[in-house]
Amino acid sequence: MNSKKFITATQLFNNLKSINWSLTYGSITFTLNNINVIIDTTDTVGVTLQSWLKQYFLANNIYFRENSNSQEFPDFYLGNYNDSNLLEIKAFNFCNTPAFDIANFDSYCDLVVEKPYILDADYLIFGYSMDNDGRITINDIWLKKIWEIAGKSEKYPLKVQEKRGMIYNIRPNTNFKKYDQTPFNSKEDFIKAIYDTISIYKGEDIAKEWYNKLHIELKS
């Protein structure tokens, strides 16, 4: 039995970037009772690309592990340990500005205190387009850290999805798509944006408590 190859997220990214995507396209087909239908809406493209990447790993004998809970972070581990080589998959319609959910705001704030190493996770992002016949083309791929894709907004230091005064998800900036300068230059800038957002949203005392817990974990 062949042993699996260990690769980093950067190596994976370079391998994927070397593919001539203009020469190939994909589609999503559903079959039931001998009736086939090609899905021509983009609702399931993201999860389908994640499933495709799993098959890519298998076809190329690449080591990976999936999260035992598909709803939890991250999507894949590229190493033997749970505190490094974390890979999260995101996708968006290249014809539009990036608007995917990076993470649930409250869940991420809680998890980063418990597991501060998630700050160093890699995000593999697919920009795709779909034509009227349901054919999917990969337009571009990025590999980023969370502070490179997170954004700022007028109301909060961190760009978020907010409904009726409640913050739901962390949302991306639009600059990374164009390879422009992004709002945060470092992990520390991103942490400060979370702190300032919590301070506005829940109060300074809660923000300080959150930061102090995170600071202790980062130092340990």
Overall description:
The longest helix has 16 residues, at 187-202. Helix 5 runs antiparallel to helix 6. The chain has a single domain (9-219), classed as DNA mismatch repair MutH/Restriction endonuclease, type II (ECO RV Endonuclease, Chain A, 3-Layer(aba) Sandwich), CATH 3.40.600. The strands form three sheets. It has a five-stranded mixed sheet with strand order 3-4-5-7-8. It has 220 residues and is an alpha+beta fold. The protein is built from six helices and ten strands; from the N terminus they run αββαββββαββαββαα. The protein starts with 8 loop residues before the first helix and ends with a helix. It has helices at residues 9-17, 45-59, 105-114, 146-149, 187-202, 204-219, and strands at 29-32, 35-38, 65-66, 76-77, 86-93, 103-104, 122-130, 136-144, 160-163, 166-170. The protein is globular.
